[in-house]
Design a protein that fits this description.
heterodimer; A: mainly alpha; 78% helix; globular; B: alpha+beta; 7-stranded mixed β-sheet; 5-stranded mixed β-sheet
Chain lengths: 342, 563
Amino acid sequence: MVLAPHIQFQGDSGARDRARRITGSPALRVVGRRLLAAIPVLIGVTFVTFAVMSALPNDTAQAILGLHASPSAVAALNHTLGLDQPFWQRYWHWLVNVLHGNLGTTVEGSSVNHELAIHVPTTLGLLLYALVVSVVLAIIVATLAARRPNGIVDRLSLVVSMLGLSTAPYVFAFLLIIVFAVKLNWFPVLSGPVTGPGSFFKNLTLPACAIGFGLFAIYTRLLRADIVEQMQREDYIVTAKAKGVAPWRVLTRHALRNSMFNLITVIGLNLGGLVGAAAIIETIFQVQGIGNDLLTGIANHDAPLVEGITLIFALVTVLGNLLADLAYAALDPRIRYGRSNA
Amino acid sequence: MSMRTACLAGAAALVLTTAAACSSGGSSSPGATPSNGSSTSPSSTAAPVAGGSITVLESSGYAGAWTTLDPAENKEGAATQDFMTAIYGQLFELGTGGKIIPDLATGYTFSPDAKTVTITLRQGVKFTDGTPFNAQAVYSNWMRDLGPIGIKNGLNPPWLVAMQKAPKGSPPGTAEPALPSAITVTGPYTIVVHQIAPNGAFIDQLFDSIPNWIASPTALQKEGASFGQNPVGAGPFEVATNTPNDELVVKKNPGYWQTGHPYLDQITFKTVGSDEAAYEAMLANEGQVYEDMSTTQLINESQSHFTVDNNLGTSPYDLQLNTAVPPFNNPKARQAIYAATNFAPILQHLFGSRYPTTESFTGPGGICYEQNVPGYQGYDPTLAKQLIQQSGLNKVTIQLGTIAISTAQESMQALATEWEQIGLKVNEQSWPLSGLISAFEANGGKSWESMVQTAGAYDPAGGVGVGFRFTSGSPFSGVHDPKLDTLLGEAQGSTNLATRCGFYDQAAEYIARNYYGPFYFTFSPANISVHGVSGPGLTTPLASVAVVPTIPWEDVSYNPSGS
């Protein structure tokens, strides 16, 4: 009984120490700070979106009900949708609901939460697929190209990259459709539901390639330039070569790793731009994702749906950039967040 | 390898890939058999074959967007006619050559004053839930369409029946449903509509409208709010799976009243994002039918691979002039616009002269079609220049607007270019539907000057017909002329087609002589199908009710080996 308080104290102390270690982690503090900083960003993004949707010259209820709708029916639907309230009131109401986990109701009457729950996984899967394929291929091609600057691989990669940079995703999408769906019948033109790995690759490969080709081109050129610079200018490369490290190993283990920073930065910055690509490509391939929903929502002046999707994309962008920052530290032990450089 | 060699190799690879991609035909595609360029399929005259299934592609911008399949709750209106006719059938169908075909109804009669319509219904028909289709079922559907549910969804059809008055001081949106006595059941299979004004267009107004689709009252009660996802009708097909805005699968109704119909076992309606995507999907044999193709180049390209059915348009594009405000409250300014417009070259350059020109609110697929109207001011640049000077049109910038769809926007831009060459200044603007409605309604209808629109329907008294664009009571009209209102009212009020057409001819001439708005061409998108598919609206032309025809899916068959 006497020892009990002591044991209790020790227990408290251990837990407190662990808690202190965790909360004292510089990386975690960075994560916390960035997440806190994301709150005004998200509010700003949703506010601007709400303001733009409200400023559009339209009558949502009339658009839904059509030309023949009586003025009383239009007024009633506007009231039901809360569109007869002042802008600030509507935004505040939406914001409070979001904090309670309720993203509202679409103008067609379904829950935005439900719509997003169905369609977000498909879009995130598509974008992740496009991103992973483009990054992996870019790393391979850039490394091969940088191994022998101005060699045949380097020049071919330049041609392919220029094509990727100068071809709009929707044009490339139709080229893919003609070759791989119409001619070869390897993949469908119109995507079906994604129910497992098989249907995922069958339905999303062409859309992912259409989105990923442009990214691949950017990443390849960027990474190739960085690797070449590392190989030609950095002392540690000379040292490694002088120590007899195999050239291939120097390239992949030393130069490549140290060339990844710009690539990671660009990947983080590109996440926002993927929204537009997803909207266009999903429409072409009829992928049932939130990019498709976004265009439908804009056409229908469906503010709750557009707001919900914008929020998701803003969240993905913020989190993606945070992950990019954390990846810097993982790649370079010299970077330690929260510590002085001195 | 030099840089030049590498670039050449890359370019050659790209050219080869593109050439392979762009070469015509596709051996793997059953639908890609080249034809002789004719738009008529070799199999179009073959006997229908029972069985098989097809996928029908629907544009996401029109027919491919739906939320509910409950007629009264349906906000998409005629856009979802394919699904509705497959599930519910129709009371009356608009057949080839404009023939009225009784489907779930067997006939109709008008009273001598054209106010009362008596409709007889087909006996022995059952909904797919086994309950009987009869006059009571039609009555409960129509009261629902004309009642609070239909009104709430903006579906209050323009029936000329007596309505209940909402109590004074009622909040906006209070329903004003039809009086129960406006429709009476006079027998198990007879129903009577009592109108408050003569209306000889009643049956024509049913086409493509919600009251033409009858749902099972028992299922409506049983399913409640979920009826729109699990609809029950007495049509040729019943719903197998339904994913709104994406895919609807319907299978053959084994108890369908018409022996031997439907021919097909299953139809999959699949949403597609664009004409281009639909065309590629058809080449890949992922779809056998695509409805409402409007891209001229793809229609031309489709003729090498598929059957292209050019349906008969009924809804001409016209230029609405707002006679309530300057500059078009001046008849000389209006006449100047008529004289400054030569639409034939526009039609040729934009649409390859696919669509016929017209000078009135009717098209070749509709009743009372009159291509040339007496007194219509034709293209006359010399006169146009004089009138522009006299009316002061050269001193103002004309505000020209339209709806944000490509056909309308291209027509508007071409008109503006033509007018600018003759000395007019034009400010163009286009809006989505809601913005367009706001533009019409702003400032009590006095903010807009001119709009490129469509005016017309199979029956000018139906849909977005002539009254919608040219009568005083419509908020979407620029004309406020009691004499024209009377002419159009008399045309609607007769049951005799010749009498009706006589009044419509007078109205068309009256519009022309007063320069109320020039008419241009009758647009109707094409239906594309792979060889082997056969049916009205796909291999034989049908009249469009408003913009597109209603395909009777029970008459469509598919024989892949017959291609």
